[in-house]
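## retry 2 of 3
previous attempt timed out at serialization; input unchanged, resubmitting
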Amino acid sequence: MTSHWTASHVAAIDPKTTPNAPLFSKPEPLLPGIDLWDYWPVQEEDGSQAVIAGGSLFILLSAPAHLDPDARHGMARLRLMHRVGDRWRDLGLLFKADFSPGSREWSGSAIISPDHGVVTLYYTVAGTRGEDVVSFSQRLFQTQADLIVEGDAIAFSAWSQPIEMLVPDGIHYERDMVGGGAIGTIKAFRDPAFFRDPADDAAYIFFAASLVQSTSFWNGAVGVARRTQDGLWDALPPLISADGVNNELERPHVIVHDGRYYLFWSTQRKVFADNGPAGPNGLYGMTSDRLAGPWRPINGTGLAFANPPEAPFQAYSWFVLPDLTVQSFADVTGLSRLPADPAEARRHFGGSPAPELRLKIQGDRVWLA
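## retry succeeded, writing output
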């Protein structure tokens, strides 16, 4: 059953009562000369953050810091870092050059085995290896490696040959990723997030998708696939449709809290339909009593919280853990509008993890602690 996030839900967002995240200053770079964004922890199968070598292991998108921060999307490589308390330690690029079948690597999720011996990575391959012109193709892959921990030394064995998990079927999910060809206009088949349903122990992957059967340019959706008994992934109809409302429901993921399901995603004002209501850059979501739905917008609108009005672009790519911790990265900080000048954008771009937040949840209500 596909549930709908509609224009009437978005229109009910009231800027006067919108919950806003606290304002923060541009953080110091974790790695000078390297931009970091869209990150996620290695998780246990129940979604909790795994404790590894006394801390947490994170995978982040990374790229050399060019003048224009937007250039990072065309050079993104997965990076491994270890955090103990507030201290981050760089463990280098996750893959060797030419390991992935694309020209760059985008977001996903990582799950550790119960014995902490193996990590399985689900991630987005963007483009095609060796392409002369950066393309917008997106494919979902999985790979795994043995985790080796000796004291505080952390390493992986050679990663297994990447396997394409799922392809857009052209029935529910769009195959052509080009869209308008600009940031915010491309179509989606990316951001795989693993989830094990405690109700029946079945494994699922959620992903950002675009609807085929749509007459609107703004045809974003949350796709879903279920793992079969033979270990393959079977695509199901979209869980959430934002048809006619929004082009990108990015990094969708699900947690269970007090026996109910909460599906969260990130989106931006600029990807709402031109002829309809628009919400702020923020964390959005829906809730349901069961994974199959029906899903209801949290807070009646779908919006959990937004960036502060003084800095509406300060953070993005929020990721909610089962303990209700919210992780994100620092985007354009300290400005009330997006800079047109790349040099100004560089001065204000965070390119590092943002301060963590925490949610409170009660039924359909979600708010910042």
